[in-house]
Design a protein that fits this description.
Elements (H helix, E strand, L loop, with lengths): L11 E5 L6 E6 L3 H20 L2 H16 L2 H12 L3 H26 L2 E3 L8 E9 L2 E5 L7 H12 L3 E5 L6 H13 L5 E3 L4 H9 L4 E5 L2 H12 L5 E4 L4 E5 L5 H13 L9 E7 H15 L19 H15 L1 E4 L13 E4 L6 H4 L6 E7 L2 H8 L4 E2 L1 E5 L3 H10 L4 E4 L16 E2 L2 E2 L4 H7 L1 E9 L14 H15 L8
Parallel strand pairs: 5-6, 5-8, 6-7, 8-9, 10-11, 10-16, 11-14, 13-14, 16-17
Antiparallel strand pairs: 1-2, 3-4, 4-20, 9-19, 12-13, 15-18
Helix pairs in contact: 1-7, 2-4, 2-6, 3-4, 3-6, 4-5, 4-15, 5-15, 9-10
Bound molecules: nicotinamide-adenine-dinucleotide.
Length: 500
């Protein structure tokens, strides 16, 4: 049975190097009973973990972080072996991820501790507090493109919020999941982070297992299936899905900087980045110059050998999607660099196409490969309108020297995150929440909102004394009701604060 053919439950998954096809490792494929057993272990871990004070959880998380950091090169090897990405890219992935783990560990108490809120004049006799409590066990389902960074966006924040985690990694990249769970076992030693390896069937079993929340990162199509299955038990989910992200270039932009970032955002990791650059809208006065600068940089990229700057496509069938999108782009557009010949058996060389129809599949759907479309527009406003015109809304980038114009564009873009004068600028800033709108998903990982995403909000109102106006009784007096009737216009009759 192949990895992709999982109609029959497999008993194990075997991973292969996308670079040379050699077998990397085999892992058990957990069936429903095994997932239930893993969840039972995690429930025990969750009870221990949730009962710890924030300070102790922070200490354990930082010990785990240190255990990972001290062997970062080894983890990078594990990531690179199964994804096929260059070792240097894997090292950066580890560094970026540990920044988030550090932030989550150090900020959980400040963000989530119980706090007093104002009870208001009428409720002066209530001491009101709001607290953020763990769900219990969070099931994290991850993709293969950044097999450490993307699931850790959920895992770090879910753990810091006091939850245990059962992590079902992609069947293409279970290595990092097993590796970090081993480091957890050594550094902390309770079943608070447990890996459940396997394919789609294992993921589906996790969703149906009775886990308290699902954090899904992957394609929009799978997110819909996960959401439908989770609906059976009303299990809440956070969905981090695909995108077709746009980069907007105004007439006054620094074109060299824009070209550098376009090539990095579109071609880095062979284009297999959820928030990578797939479409560029450049104001027509600078369009030709920008295309030339992008081509000049992209054609220098090395895509094979020891010093390759990006690797092969990790998912073999993705090559067909990229080929289809290149063909789709070329139906209406003009190749500025490469074309169908750039799509090899596993490696895709950079492709730049201009003047592509906005209705084409290449523009509207996620390519997830090193193809970038650069279309001319009349103005930054038109660029925003085109950026917003796809079913996705993950992130976007704007290049201009005009701060006010950049802020106006950022406000008008229907996405979850915007970079100004860079790409992916938000990804490393741990305090910034990350997530999409529309078909790119919902819910947020990272930052304070990421911590709250993995928390149950609980309100407590403690009565400190008897109310002078006692309305919460079946024996309400006429006098109290009369007072209340007189109070309503006093409290709410004047539209105080309505002036603007
Ligand atoms: P995928 O949807 O094929 O698989 C994602 C995970 O879901 C895998 O672990 C898979 O085994 C599991 N799965 C598959 N069917 C399932 C089911 N019925 N029930 C439960 N689990 C199931 O995605 P992929 O190919 O691994 O990843 C690439 C996609 O992920 C791209 O669309 C990319 O844009 C997206 N992505 C999004 C983000 C983000 O943060 N928004 C980050 C990285 C990747």
């Amino acid at each position: 049975m192949t990895l992709m053919d999982q109609t029959q439950p497999a008993t194990e998954v075997t991973t292969h190097s996308p670079v040379d096809g050699r077998i990397v490792a085999s892992y058990p494929a957990a069936d429903a009973a095994e997932v239930d057993a893993i969840l039972a272990r995690a429930r025990v871990g969750a009870a221990w973990w949730a009962a710890l004070p924030f300070a102790e959880r922070r200490a354990h998380l930082l010990r785990w972080k240190s255990a990972i950091a001290l062997r970062a090169g080894e983890l990078a090897d594990v990531i690179a072996a199964e994804t096929g990405k260059p070792h240097g890219d894997a090292v950066l992935e580890v560094m970026l991820t540990l920044g988030h783990l550090d932030w989550a560990a150090k900020n959980a108490r400040h963000v989530l501790r119980r706090r007093k809120v104002k009870a208001g004049l009428v409720n002066y006799n209530q001491h009101a507090t709001v607290g953020y409590e763990p769900y219990g066990v969070v099931g994290v389902i991850g993709p293969w493109n950044y097999p450490f960074y993307t699931p850790m966006g959920s895992i770090s924040y879910a753990l810091a919020a006091g939850n245990a985690v059962v992590f079902k990694p992609s069947e293409l990249t279970p290595g990092p999941a097993v590796w970090i769970a081993e480091r957890w076992a050594e550094a902390v030693g309770h079943d608070v982070l447990v890996a459940a390896t396997g394919g789609r069937a294992t993921g589906a079993a996790l969703v149906a297992s009775g886990v308290d929340k699902i954090a899904f990162t992957g394609s929009t199509a799978t997110a819909k299936k996960v959401m439908a299955a989770a609906a059976e038990s009303l299990t809440p989910i956070v969905a981090e899905c695909g995108g077709s992200d746009a980069l907007l270039v105004a007439a006054d932009a620094d074109l060299d900087a824009a070209a550098d970032f376009i090539v990095f955002g579109a071609m880095g990791n062979a284009g297999q980045t959820c928030a990578g650059v797939e479409r560029v809208y450049a104001v027509d006065t600078v369009h030709a110059t920008l295309v030339a600068k992008v081509v000049e940089r992209a054609e220098r990229l090395r895509t094979s050998g020891e010093d390759a700057q990006y690797g092969p496509m990790t998912l073999p069938s993705q090559v067909d999607v990229v080929r289809r999108h290149v063909a789709s782009a070329l139906e209406t557009g003009t190749a500025a660099l490469g074309g169908l010949d750039s799509v090899h058996e596993r490696v895709v060389a950079p492709v730049v196409v201009t003047g592509v129809s906005e209705d084409s599949e290449a523009v509207r759907e996620e390519t997830f490969g090193p193809l970038v479309i650069i279309n001319p527009v009349a103005s930054l406003e038109e660029a925003v309108a085109r950026a917003n015109a796809t079913p996705y809304g993950l992130t976007a980038a704007v290049f201009t020297r005009d701060k006010a114009a950049a802020n106006r564009a950022a406000a008008a873009l229907r996405v979850g995150a915007v970079s100004i004068n860079s790409v992916l600028g938000f990804a490393g800033v741990a305090a910034l929440p990350f997530g999409g709108v529309k078909q790119s998903g919902f819910g947020r990982i990272h930052g304070a909102d990421g911590l709250r995403e993995f928390s149950v909000v609980k309100s407590v109102a403690r009565q400190t004394r008897k109310a002078a106006l006692n309305l919460l009784t079946m024996d309400r007096t006429e006098k109290d009701l009369h007072t209340a009737t007189k109070m309503i216009p006093m409290l709410h009759g004047r539209a105080k604060g309505a002036k603007h």
